[in-house]
Amino acid sequence: MSLSLVFLLISALDFRHHGSEAQINKFQPSSNKEPNGVHDHQHEKIITISEDGSVQSPRFPQSYPRDVVLVWRLIAADDNMQIQLTFDQRFGLEEPENGLCKFDFVEIEDLSDGTIFGRWCGTNGVPGIQISKANQVRIRFRSDEYLASKPGFCIYYSLLEPAHFESPTVPPPSLSLDNLNEAVAGFDTVEELIKYLEPERWQLDLDDLYKPTWQMLGKAFVHGRKSRVDLNLLKEEVRLYSCTPRNTSVSLREELKRTDTIYWPGCLLVKRCGGNCACCSLGCHDCQCAPIKVSKKYHEVLQLRYRSPGKPLQKSLADVGLEHHEECGCACKGTTGG
């Protein structure tokens, strides 16, 4: 074999080796994402706010693209202003799994202290108005590579003067313990609660909660608590997992009370109210989780029926209507129709 032919064969083998490596590397996962699938903050789009505007999922209100990660950082041009975020009523992302937004979601973070206001998905309701504590917020949007939904979301932003909390008509100390407990339970955030209790010095009181005083030099410090406890998150977790709509499997024959028909699949998932009402504030001894808003949704299934003895089964696709609970709430037993 000639020397030139040997060199030619070696070059060909080297090319195939590097070509194979390039093909493998093409399918390596991207390294510019955080473990939760959200881009690093260096990829965020910074928007300086001096007037009203909005951010939205691509193609809103049509189906947004799959496998997308977007991050916006909103900064009020005036350091003394707060940012109000209002969701468009046409809100809809991929449904959660077991009450958690794992796949497609939009999330809002307050950059003054890193508090996550919420992570939202699904189609059951429009998120409420969110107001920043200072002049910066971060909005994250993620869609996975499956089942893009519509319409997505649009968030309108506007500027607010810092809120001055008005003292309640009845000062808290004059309330009875039971009435005060009921009033306290109605607040969604610890900031709102402290404003209610101490309208003149609420910010100082809030800061004092996390200072190491002799009353607190116990387990939290001995065991090295490394971060500030998020009381708002604790309350939100209770709200999410108490009395809420959640996936429940139902037997079609039992649900539809049909003894002459067989369905395939025989069970379907529906949204039904679940969870306890341990924190019910209605003052009744037997508080139960009940539907507030109910809708009927149709599901296409295979239906098998006997036409007459000795003849084969009649097979057809049929729409079956099942109740879905859209909203749930705690109520005294005997006062609801559910």
What does this structure look like?
The chain has helices spanning 3-26, 177-185, 190-197, 202-208, 219-222, 231-241, 252-256; strands at 45-49, 53-56, 68-76, 82-87, 105-110, 115-120, 130-131, 136-143, 154-160, 244-251, 261-264, 267-274, 287-306, 313-332. The termini are far apart. The longest helix has 24 residues, at 3-26. The chain contains 7 helices and 14 strands. A hairpin with a 6-residue loop joins strand 13 and strand 14. It is 20% helix and 33% strand. Helix 3 crosses helix 4. The chain is of the alpha+beta class and 338 residues long.
Give a quick rundown of the structure:
This protein has seven helices and 14 strands. It has 338 residues and is an alpha+beta fold. About 15% of the residues have low confidence.
